[in-house]
From TrEMBL:
This is MFS transporter. Gene3D superfamilies: MFS general substrate transporter like domains, Multidrug resistance protein D. GO terms for biological process: response to antibiotic. SUPFAM superfamilies: MFS general substrate transporter. Its main location: membrane.
Length: 472
């Protein structure tokens, strides 16, 4: 449900805007609010499961997510929809961190490989099916509900999850769980919101002075967060963020890669959807189907990179992925400039396939590369921080859409009936930002180890025992 909800909403954005009269900044908050709440609560959600029981917290999150989905589907005001999406992201932060922890505590070591394989398949299915499902549900206009079924579809799934979860999931807790750091969560969230709110609303409000003061103040609040985290470490050893991790060069660089990659995906996917539907005038179904080559390419190269390429070439696979994805973006810029408003889904297929292939080479092996030199006793904290950084980057990218896309959108041209040209120019500008971020990713990967500790060059690698995964 989480993975589908992350991707399903973008396709329905034009329908939501038309039905509720939502402004461009409100459209950003519909996705940004979810990502921000999810990022802010991930680490705390995991610790709540360790302390109070993973089954209990999972079911609480599942119930809350289902309720929030119903509120999203019933919202008659764009601001109420944003509030429901924030609630959805917060409850997802309770639900999602428990999944792998439950698997780890439920299954013996020799069975986990198969379970993680099934988990990976479901992850891939969720990411691929989201845009298509969103397009179909919006296009079918079930019972005249337009975009609302994209949220209401979660109700039967959530109810089934609650029933089956209560029956089949065994309760488990951590033996030595870290304590909660609610002050750290509050400071981090406040600092991020102080930066993102004026960034998202600034263009619509004419970039007032208070917005710049608020963004400057966010640095002060985040500085206080760092000071408090050091105090919390000395006090009880349970900070929200283990700051000592950043003394590991590969981890610090890896967090930079995760952040940059999250930002570029946040920018790209929303701008792409708006370009196709509001600019080119395509239906939600056509826009969803156009993305199929991208999704297939990501799935194929993700599996190939982990199983075949990373054990042989190490970090070069991630760098090749960034360059391949950048090549796909440049090809897209060239085609969009050549064909203009007459571009077709078939003409988009090649650059989308190249971009998807590059993304698969990056996203699949990245986490293992980032964790490769982290001490084992901090692996849990590092994993939580990686996931949080990815979601935070996505939220920042969505906030930047107001600058890199809407900030250059010629609204007069849109009003004169030249929406395709205006949205095409704005989309092209956003793609240049994406290209620059991919170059940054390529450079940061140089700071990652050549080979992670869970892999070895093929010539030196010892054969794994039957059923034993080679890479974590």
């Amino acid at each position: 449900m989480d993975l589908v909800d992350v991707t399903i909403v973008n396709i329905a954005m034009p329908s939501i805007s038309h039905d509720l009269g939502a402004s461009f900044s409100v459209l950003q908050w519909i996705t940004e609010g979810y990502a921000l709440a999810f990022a802010a609560g991930l680490i705390t959600g995991g610790r709540l499961g360790d302390i109070y029981g993973r089954r209990r917290v999972f079911l609480l999150g599942m119930g809350g997510f289902t309720l929030a989905s119903m509120l999203c589907g019933l919202a008659g005001d764009p601001h109420l929809l944003v509030a429901a999406r924030v609630l959805q992201g917060g409850t997802a932060a309770l639900m999602v961190p428990q999944v792998l922890a439950i698997v780890h505590s439920t299954f013996p070591a020799h069975e986990r490989g198969k379970v993680f394989g099934m988990f990976g398949a479901i992850v891939g299915l969720g990411a691929v099916s989201g845009p298509i499902l969103g397009a179909l549900l919006t296009e079918w206009n079930i019972l005249g509900l337009e975009w609302r079924p994209i949220f209401l579809v979660n109700l039967p799934v959530g109810i089934a999850g609650l029933i089956l979860g209560r029956r089949f999931i065994a309760e488990s807790k951590a033996e030595n769980a870290l304590k909660l750091d609610l002050v750290g969560v509050a400071l981090a969230t406040l600092g991020i919101v102080m930066f993102l709110y004026p960034l998202t609303q600034g263009r619509e409000l004419g970039w007032p002075l208070w917005g710049f003061l608020l963004m400057g103040g966010s640095a002060v609040v985040l500085g206080l967060f760092v000071v408090y985290e050091r105090y919390k470490k000395r006090k009880d050893g349970s900070p929200l963020v283990e700051l000592s991790l950043f003394s590991v060069k590969s981890f610090a660089a890896g967090i930079g890669v995760q952040l940059a990659f999250g930002v570029l995906t946040g920018i790209y996917f929303l701008c792409w959807t708006l370009y196709m539907q509001l600019g080119l005038g395509w239906s939600a179904l056509r826009a969803g189907l156009t993305g199929i080559p991208f999704s297939i390419a990501v799935s194929v190269t993700a599996g190939m990179s982990v199983q075949k390429l990373v054990p042989r070439f190490g970090r070069k696979v991630l760098q090749a992925g960034a360059l391949v994805m950048a090549a796909g973006v440049l090809l897209y810029i060239w085609e969009a400039d050549r064909y203009g408003a007459d571009i077709t889904s078939w003409q988009m297929a090649l650059p989308l396939t190249v971009m998807g292939a590059g993304m698969g080479f990056v996203v699949a092996p990245l986490t293992d590369a980032v964790l490769s030199e982290v001490p084992r006793e901090h692996a849990g904290s590092a994993s939580g921080l990686i996931n949080t950084t990815q979601q935070l980057g996505n939220a920042i990218g969505l906030g930047l859409v107001s600058v890199v896309f809407f900030g250059v959108l010629d609204e007069d041209a849109v009003a004169r009936g030249r929406a395709a040209t205006a949205f095409g120019d704005a989309y092209g500008n956003a793609l240049w930002w994406v290209t620059g971020l991919l170059v940054l990713v390529f450079l940061l990967v140089f700071a990652l180890p050549r080979h992670s500790r869970t892999e070895a060059p093929v010539a030196d690698a010892a054969p794994a025992e039957k059923g034993e995964p080679i890479a974590a």
